[in-house]
C-alpha cells in the first residue's frame, strides 16, 4: 500500500501543478453616463406661433435701416421640473444676405427686407444661430422669453411682396 501511495503522489502532484496553473487577471470596467435636466413643456401659444406685422409700403423703406414698428411676443415654457433651473433657446434660420445679423425673408416675395429680432427691452439683438438664456421661475416653474421683432431693410431698396420667414427654436435645459 505504501508503494501504491508513493506512485500515486507524483501523479497527483503533476495534476495539481497542471490544475493549479490558472490565469487570474484583474480588470476595471469604466461606466459613464450623464444626468441632464428634464424638459419643460412648450406652451401651446408658443408652438407654431405667428408674429404678424402691419401692412408696410415699400415707399416707406427708402433708407438703409428703415424699420417697421416693433411687435412684442413671448416664448413660454411651463411645468419645468425642479431640477431645471435655466432654459437656453437657440434661434436658427436663414441669415439675410445683406446683413447676416438679421433673419432673411426666406419664404416671402418682397426683396430688400429682413427680420430683426431682439429681447423685449431692445438691449440684446438675436442673430441667426444666436442663443438666449433665462432662469426658470422657482415658484411658477415657468421660463419666459420676452421678445420683439420688426421688419428691417439693410439696403433701402425694397420691392413689394409678402414678408415671411421661419425661425426654428431649439431649447436646452440646465
UniProtKB/TrEMBL annotation:
GO CC entries:
pilus
Residue ranges occupied by any Fimbrial-type adhesion domain in the UniProt entry: 29-174
Name the keywords, alphabetized. Signal
GO annotation, biological process: cell adhesion involved in single-species biofilm formation
Q: Where is the signal peptide?
A: 1-26
Where along the sequence do coiled-coil regions lie?
none
Q: What is this protein called?
A: Type 1 fimbrial protein
Amino acid at each position: 500500500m505504501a508503494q501504491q501511495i508513493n506512485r500515486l503522489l507524483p501523479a497527483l502532484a503533476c495534476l495539481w501543478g497542471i490544475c493549479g496553473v490558472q490565469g487570474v487577471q484583474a480588470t476595471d470596467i469604466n461606466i459613464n453616463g450623464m444626468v441632464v435636466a428634464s424638459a419643460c413643456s412648450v406652451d401651446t401659444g408658443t408652438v407654431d406661433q405667428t408674429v404678424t406685422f402691419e401692412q408696410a409700403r415699400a415707399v416707406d423703406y427708402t433708407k438703409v435701416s428703415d424699420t417697421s414698428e416693433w411687435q412684442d411676443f413671448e416664448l413660454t415654457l411651463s411645468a419645468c421640473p425642479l431640477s431645471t433651473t435655466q432654459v437656453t433657446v437657440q434661434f436658427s434660420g436663414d441669415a439675410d444676405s445683406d446683413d447676416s445679423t438679421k433673419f432673411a425673408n426666406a419664404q416671402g416675395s418682397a426683396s430688400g427686407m429682413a427680420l430683426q429680432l431682439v429681447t423685449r427691452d431692445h438691449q440684446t439683438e438675436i442673430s441667426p444661430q444666436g442663443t438666449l438664456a433665462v432662469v426658470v421661475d422657482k415658484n411658477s416653474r415657468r421660463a419666459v422669453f420676452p421678445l420683439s421683432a420688426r421688419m428691417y431693410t439693410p439696403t433701402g431698396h425694397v420691392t413689394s411682396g409678402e414678408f415671411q420667414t421661419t425661425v426654428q427654436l431649439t431649447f436646452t435645459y440646465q
